[in-house]
């Protein structure tokens, strides 16, 4: 696993990877900005509507309600900035679905040139896996927020969930280049511990601000190596039995 991570980090400095990296970072930033802008407008509208309703119901100086609305809007903006850090797993899951085949192809050509290349996944399959994982990540984030007040328990829950979700998604996307979805899922279940441990490296990567914008590339490349290693180990375990 650590050898796979080392190979991945070394290849990320290559010109081919950098080209994909810039595209992935640009897409991720666009997603974060659009989501943040949309949420801010929604929360600001809710604050204005709530203040207007409260002023009409309770009365009082208009200036007081305007100040409260302004404070709530600022708090919402700060909350969105903070939330963007925690929502990076969701952004990573969605963005990665667009680049996993390109990254996997680079890794296979660089490190496994003698082996048959994988088959690119249909875009709908990649988007399905990425969107599903992104939505589950958002749900986990919302459930974990209340636990942030209890000695960091929320952070632990989010870390474990991120390791599981991103490890699962990227391993399946790497495996489905060579296997049917059913076979890929069965292989993931048979190697759940190894996949989860690799997912922990992805979870650590996604927790580093700025650097985490490159998570889709790191995760996709790492799981290509993991799939190759686990496939080789499986062959080694089967062949002696046949003999």
Structure write-up:
The protein is mainly alpha-helical and 243 residues long. 83% of the residues lie in helices and 0% in strands. It has nine helices and no strands. The chain has helices spanning 2-11, 15-58, 62-86, 88-111, 123-144, 153-175, 181-190, 192-206, 215-242. It is globular. The chain starts with a helix and ends with a helix.
List the helices and strands and how they pair.
Blueprint: H1 2-11, H2 15-58, H3 62-86, H4 88-111, H5 123-144, H6 153-175, H7 181-190, H8 192-206, H9 215-242
Question: Could you give a quick summary of the protein structure above?
Answer:
By secondary structure, this protein is mainly α. The chain has helices at residues 2-11, 15-58, 62-86, 88-111, 123-144, 153-175, 181-190, 192-206, 215-242.
Question: What brief labels describe this structure?
Answer:
243 residues; mainly alpha
Report how far the terminal alpha carbons are from each other: 29 Å
- Going by helix content, strand content and strand pairing, the class is mainly alpha
Helix content: over 70%
Strand content: under 5%
| Main β-sheet description | none
Oligomer: single chain
């Amino acid at each position: 696993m650590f050898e796979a991570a080392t190979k991945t980090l070394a290849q990320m400095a290559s010109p081919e990877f950098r080209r994909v990296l810039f595209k992935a970072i640009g897409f991720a930033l666009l997603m974060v900005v659009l989501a943040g802008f949309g949420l801010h407008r929604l929360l600001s509208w809710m604050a204005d509507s709530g203040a207007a309703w409260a002023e009409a119901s309770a009365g009082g100086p208009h200036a007081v309600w305007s100040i409260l609305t302004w404070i709530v809007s600022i708090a919402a903006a700060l909350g969105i900035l903070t939330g963007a850090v925690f929502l990076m797993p969701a952004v990573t899951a969605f963005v990665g679905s667009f680049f996993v085949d390109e990254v996997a192809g680079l890794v296979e050509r660089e490190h496994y040139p003698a082996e048959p290349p994988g088959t690119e996944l249909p875009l709908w399959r990649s988007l399905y896996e990425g969107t599903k994982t992104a939505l589950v990540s958002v749900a986990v984030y919302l459930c974990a927020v209340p636990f942030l007040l209890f000695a960091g328990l929320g952070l632990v829950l989010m870390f474990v969930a991120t390791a599981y979700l991103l490890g699962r998604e990227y391993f399946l996307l790497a495996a489905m280049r060579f296997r049917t979805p059913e076979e890929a899922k069965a292989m993931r279940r048979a190697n759940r511990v190894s996949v989860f441990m690799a997912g922990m490296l992805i979870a650590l990567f996604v927790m580093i601000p700025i650097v985490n914008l490159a998570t889709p590339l790191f995760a996709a490349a790492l799981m290509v190596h993991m799939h190759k290693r686990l496939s080789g180990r499986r062959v080694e375990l089967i062949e002696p039995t046949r003999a």
